[in-house]
Amino acid sequence: MDLRHLNYFLVLAEELHFGRAAERLHISQPPLSRMIQLIENDLGVLLFERTKRSVILTPAGQDFLQDAKQMILQMQTVKKRLAIYGQGETGTLRIGYVGAVMHSNLPALLAEFTKSHPHINLQFEELPNHKLVHELNNGTLDAAFVRTWLHPEKLEEKLILSEKFVAVLPITHSLSAKKKISVQELANEQFITFTRECGPTIFDSFLVLCSNAGFTPQISHHASQLNSVLRLVESGFGISLLPENVENGYALQLKFIPLENTEETVPLIMLNRKENPNPALLHLQNHLVKYSSNEKEISEKSVI
Fold it and tell me: Where in this chain does the record put each HTH lysR-type domain (predicted)?
């Protein structure tokens, strides 16, 4: 028995007249009579008492009427819910990330997204770059955020934002009182950096900054975690060049000083499968692309 059968029964139960019910259903009387007989045969009970002058519900028919109304209501509710899901307004997005992206505007952007799409649940998992690519390819993740261009096959990469580098110095450093600093002033410093394996784009951009300033950096320590880099700098083992937003969330004895006349930036990149069936993903992409476009417009105006 499907919804069409239930609808035929409900209309006849309301009209208690085959002619009027058939007219409402835009069919002739014989098909309606056959349909009601099929329903009764399926249920094994008479639902209507028929005479030449009247049609009335039997006790079984009256009982079934309440069930039929409830089933119709439930199915309408399900259809509405699934329609919303099909539009991507509800559901779950499984998001992976490398730890470094948490020191950017991404958490705030995702928080704004959940406010504007309260029925989309975000689930997070922190993984290294190669595992994020693997989980995206096998469908375990819907999207991933990284700090380096990976150019994986079968995945899309989209630049969400770019951050400038800042010099990170111990608060006791001789240059820590400056408002801005040039990379050339750091030529004789010992540097603490991420390993290239952890952040190829950050590491390569760091080398380009130093090369453009006319020197090859002296790297005293490589670290795999941002916290390790910052604590080593704080303890006086060297300095670092890092994305500007790493300052947020830390209360260390450090100074974060903007660099003068530099073009190198650190990207925040969103990865996802090219053929992802999750409709909620499009809403997240549009949300982040809108932010990216606004940031680009603001940046262009500031240059003018």
Answer: 1-58
> Which long-range contacts (C-beta less than 8 Å, at least 24 apart) are formed by 7-10?
7/72, 8/32, 8/35, 8/36, 8/39, 9/36, 9/39, 9/47, 9/64, 9/65, 9/68, 10/65, 10/68, 10/69, 10/72
Structure token digits, residue 168? 């990170």
pLDDT digits (tens, 9 = 90+) for 234-272: 999 999 999 988 887 677 889 999 999 999 999 999 999
Render pLDDT for 49-81 as a digit per residue (tens, 0 to 9).
Answer: 988 888 999 999 999 998 888 888 888 777 766
Residue with tokens 């209309």: 11
Residue ranges in the chain assigned as alpha helix (H)? 3-15, 18-25, 29-43, 59-86, 106-116, 129-137, 200-212, 226-234, 280-303
Q: What is the pLDDT of residues 127-182, one digit of tens each?
A: 999 999 999 999 999 999 999 898 998 899 999 989 999 999 999 999 999 999 99
Structure tokens at 69: 């109304």
| All domains in the chain, ordered by first residue | 3-86 (1.10.10.10), 91-159+271-303 (3.40.190.10), 160-266 (3.40.190.290)
For residues 246-271, b (16+ Cβ closer than 10 Å) or e, as one string?
bbeeeebebbbbebeebebbbbbbbb
